[in-house]
Amino acid sequence: MERSFEQYFRQNHLPHLWCPGCGNGIAMKAIVQAVEKKGWSQDNTVIVSGIGCSSRASGYMDFDTLHTAHGRAIPFATGIKLANPDLNVIVITGDGDCTAIGGNHFIHGCRRNVDLTVIMFNNNIYGMTGGQASPTTPVGAKATTAPYGSVDRTFDACKLAEAAGATYVARSTAFHVQHMTNMIADGLDNKGFSFIEAMVQCPTAFGRKNRMGSPADMLKWMRDPAVMKAAWDKLPEEKREDKFPIGCLYSSQAIDYDAAYDQVIERAGGADK
Questions:
Q1: Across-strand partners of 247?
Q2: Per-residue confidence band for 1, with pLDDT thresholds at 50, 70 and 90
Q3: Cβ distance 200 to 27 under 8 Å?
Q4: Which residues are CB-contacts of 230 (< 8 A; sequence separation ≥ 6)?
Q5: pTM higher than 0.90
Q6: What is the b/e burial string over 33-67, where b = at least 16 CB atoms within 10 angstroms of the residue's CB?
């Protein structure tokens, strides 16, 4: 019997080309389950992606989709939203795509509070292009560009999004499947820039290089240090070491970009008269 979420995939494009054990499929399924939970129409929802392992997801999803240039998914999505504010626009991006080459677009998308839901698949590595270190590669972790361990300090993309002006910021992992779906669904509800960090395992480029074992072992590597936000807030600082919070990390209200732009159009129309 066909499962309800299968209607959201282009069956003729499957099976996908992600490596066995990759967490991207888990995050992709969480997105369509969140869309289904909200009752969004496929005909009124647009999926935009950049370049990288994560961004291949748009090709498998049966919506109007746009596979854009490296790091440029957010400005493309902004153009779509401004052209037709009634559309629901979701951006799928990776840690390198979003915070490295696309970092400038990321912070200004947050600053403008564009009504987008951005899901960043964070596998801590450039998986598709050879396993280079990304801005989220942990300090000391190995990569092809850091064979003796990365010395670059790591971006906390959620803190960056909050500081730049996003009005909904959340984090979840591929282990916490239902939780991830809920975090994305809550982001879809937000009228403004929503950012969800979906932590996913990369057993090929990151796991092998760092001797992390099987994909199941990598899921445990995400499960064990993850702490729900309510519990995190009660943890003393000394007990937070080697742990990270998951859940809704920040939420606020502010006028979104297309609504603000409509006000400009109204003012310009009044001035003409």
A1: 171
A2: very low
A3: yes
A4: 247
A5: yes
A6: bbbbeeebebeebbbbbbbbbbbbbbebbbbbbbb
CA dihedral defined by 204, 198, 33, 59, rounded to 10 degrees? -50
Task: Encode pLDDT of 220-233 as tens digits.
Answer: 999 999 999 999 99
- For 208-259, write each residue's pLDDT tens digit: 999 999 999 999 999 999 999 999 999 999 999 999 999 999 999 999 999 9
Spatial CB neighbours of 6, under 8 Å, sequence gap ≥ 6 = none
Where are any strands of DSSP class E within the chain? Answer: 45-49, 64-67, 88-94, 117-122, 168-173, 194-199, 226-228, 244-251
Order of strands, sheet of 88-94, starting from the edge strand that comes earlier in the sequence: 64-67, 45-49, 88-94, 117-122, 194-199, 168-173, 244-251, 226-228
Helices (H) and strands (E) in the chain, counts: 10, 8
pLDDT greater than 60 at residue 118: yes
DSSP for 163-212 reads HHT-SEEEEEESSSHHHHHHHHHHHHH-SS-EEEEEE---IIIIITTTT-
* Residue 137 burial (10 A CB sphere; 0-12, 13-18, 19+): buried
| Residue 189 clears pLDDT 60, i.e. is over it | yes
Give residues with Cβ within 8 angstroms of 64, minimum separation 6. 43, 45, 46, 47
Structure tokens at 264: 């400009």
Provide the token pair at 215: 């994909």
Q: What is the DSSP letter of 145?
A: T
* Total Cβ atoms within 10 A of residue 198: 27
The pairing of strands 168-173 and 117-122 is unpaired
Q: Above pLDDT 70, what percent of the chain?
A: 97
Tell me the pLDDT of the chain averaged across its residues: 94
From CA 257, how far away is CA 260, in angstroms rounded?
A: 5
| Phi then psi dihedrals of residue 270, to 5 deg | -65, -35
